[in-house]
Amino acid sequence: MTSADHALPAAAPFHLSPIVAGAWRMADWGFSPQQRLGWIEACLALGITSFDHADIYGGYTVEALFGEALAAAPGLRDRMQLVSKCGIKLVSPQRPGHAIKSYDTSRAHVVASVEQSLRALRTDRLDLLLIHRPDLLTDPDELADTFSRLRADGKVLQFGVSNHTPSQLAMLHRRLPLVTNQIELSPLQMGALGDGTLDQCTDLGLRPMIWSPLGGGRLFTSDDAQARRVREVLQALATQHGVSVATVAYAWILRHPSRPLPIAGSSRVEAMREAVAALDLRLPAEDWYRVWQASMGHEVA
């Protein structure tokens, strides 16, 4: 049976908050369940209603940590969107059947991953499921049909991909409409601007989710020439606009016409507030290009 043969309810409208909260490092925060709940509530108070997960985060532990906190205030579930990713198989005590690190988008693995995420997060549905990395053995018809069945069963409302090339996204999108590609973009990582990834998102109306918008911290800690050039420009713009350097970095990403959705993954509420502040700062095109030029180390051609 193909996805075309499997009757589907109409897809729910796609909505994520303009800043997404990332839970990648939650296992490293050392938070108690009550502290985790406090972080969730603080994000919601800032208007950050979308939370980004992956089954592998924290060695397959983060979803359960989040779910434990959410269980203390289950009424919050209907105020948020839960995003998860699957498809990477890590060698881990949590998954003793994994012999080597590999990718797997087979029906059995995707369905099992979704079921495990639902149990860990203590929810009956995922608002969005992404394939975490391109699987070279993906059967797009089987995967599209798997997605269709998960949606028909009410377990996943929308689907997307992460770290996929334009051709990889297009192959699956032709079979079942996707809603996003979660990709890396920051003032230190410009690849998606030139390889067609953001062009495709703009063309198809798919809002890209952005991971490592601050360069994984390199924006503030690295002493290489690129980071120094970019910091100097960002600091000048931050002083000009009366905001933090992080806020300018987020604003630089938000300025792209694909309408990106940056993922902010800090345990500090103030850092999450800096991300939200970028929603009120629209950089002029020349300032955007000043950051681009500092990162690339040359003027536009």
Automatic annotation (TrEMBL):
<protein>
    <submittedName>
        <fullName>Aldo/keto reductase</fullName>
    </submittedName>
</protein>
<dbReference type="InterPro" id="IPR023210">
    <property type="entry name" value="NADP_OxRdtase_dom"/>
</dbReference>
<dbReference type="Pfam" id="PF00248">
    <property type="entry name" value="Aldo_ket_red"/>
</dbReference>
<dbReference type="InterPro" id="IPR036812">
    <property type="entry name" value="NAD(P)_OxRdtase_dom_sf"/>
</dbReference>
<dbReference type="InterPro" id="IPR050523">
    <property type="entry name" value="AKR_Detox_Biosynth"/>
</dbReference>
<feature type="domain" description="NADP-dependent oxidoreductase">
    <location>
        <begin position="18"/>
        <end position="291"/>
    </location>
</feature>
